[in-house]
Design goal:
CATH architecture of the largest domain: 3-Layer(aba) Sandwich
Oligomer: single chain
Keywords: Methyltransferase, Transferase
Largest sheet: 7 strands, parallel
Protein name: 23S rRNA (Guanosine2251-2'-O)-methyltransferase
Organism: Brevundimonas viscosa
Order of helices and strands: HHEHEHEHEHEHEHEHEEHEHEH
Pfam families: SpoU_methylase (PF00588), SpoU_sub_bind (PF08032)
CATH topology of the largest domain: Alpha/beta knot
Helix content: 25-40%
GO molecular function: RNA binding; RNA methyltransferase activity
Distance between the termini: 67 Å
Length: about 290
């Protein structure tokens, strides 16, 4: 096959270009085309500056959960549309004394990242700080979720929501490779980040060692594992370890798990979204905890 360069070298001779009528003749027939002036019906708006999504909560459930959280007392800037402001005052949904700044919906949208579904509420506040590992691990009972370098805010938020729904004790994430508990993550969590403790560990392998000392057994989710999740769970204190969206569990984290397990998928589809897999694993672990 000829190379691209060879094909380019064999181009056919150029055909003579089209010669139109003299410019003056064209103008005499059609008349000169008037120049268009600037449009007067659309004044350009100043470009939206970059928004720090990590500094905001938005949406009804995330904001109301934050207002109800005692740890948020005395902090943050609460913005609400007139309708939402009436609701907060009427139903006493800001029990820790946050003052409402009323704002119209369009102005509120301009303060947030593009596409943010604010539902008339936004809360500018710093993300919550994490708790100590021992705070969620003692006494050793129930289920803890560990996330190994998950970075997608939607997935992490959905896992928070499922973990709270199925009664998990808390979530452990790696400090340097995890999104802030705000913005799109908090929206996907629907308020769960305000109610479920989160540990930000520097080293997950060492965190697993510490959890083992405290009486916990770690089960890592791995699609290539020999045992199924049902076979790996024993009903005791369990750490469910979820790998990242693309790479799965890292080698050292997997080696610190007591067992690796897969979710059987008889339908033949080889992979689940990590947040869906976490929800299934949490359901199965909660079922084994209660003996049902």
């Amino acid at each position: 096959m000829s190379s691209k360069r060879e094909r380019n070298d064999r181009q056919s001779p150029k055909k003579p270009g089209f010669r139109g009528r003299p410019e003056g003749a064209a103008k005499r027939e059609r008349g000169a085309i008037p120049e268009r002036g600037p449009a007067t019906d659309s004044t350009p708006r100043p470009p939206r500056g970059k928004v720090d999504a990590d500094g905001w909560l938005w949406g009804r459930h995330p904001v109301l959960a934050a207002l109800a959280n005692p740890a948020r007392k005395g902090m943050g800037r609460l913005l609400a549309t007139p309708e939402r402001a009436v609701e907060i005052d009427r139903d006493r949904l800001a029990p820790h004394g946050h003052r409402i700044e009323t704002i119209d919906p369009a102005a509120l949208a301009r303060l947030l990242p593009p596409g943010a579904v604010h539902q008339g509420l936004a809360f500018k506040v710093a993300p919550l700080e994490g708790v100590a590992l021992e705070d969620i691990a003692t006494p050793a009972r129930g289920v803890i979720v560990m996330l190994d370098q998950l970075t997608d805010p939607q997935n992490v938020g959905a896992i928070f929501r499922s973990a709270l729904a199925f009664g998990a004790r808390g979530i452990v994430v790696q400090d340097r490779h995890s999104p802030a508990l705000a913005g799109a993550l908090a929206k996907a969590a629907a308020g769960a980040t305000e109610r479920l403790p989160c540990v930000r560990a520097v080293n997950l392998s060492r965190a697993l060692e510490r959890l083992a000392d405290l009486g916990w057994r770690a089960v890592g989710l791995d699609g290539a594992a020999e045992r199924t999740l049902e076979e790996a769970l024993d009903g005791g204190p369990t750490v469910l370890v979820m790998g990242s969206e693309g790479e799965g569990l890292r080698r050292l984290v997997a080696e610190h798990c007591d067992d690796l397990a897969r979710i059987p998928m008889p339908g033949g589809f080889e992979s689940l979204n990590v947040s869906n897999a976490a929800a299934i694993a949490l359901y199965e672990a909660a079922r084994r905890q209660t003996g049902t």
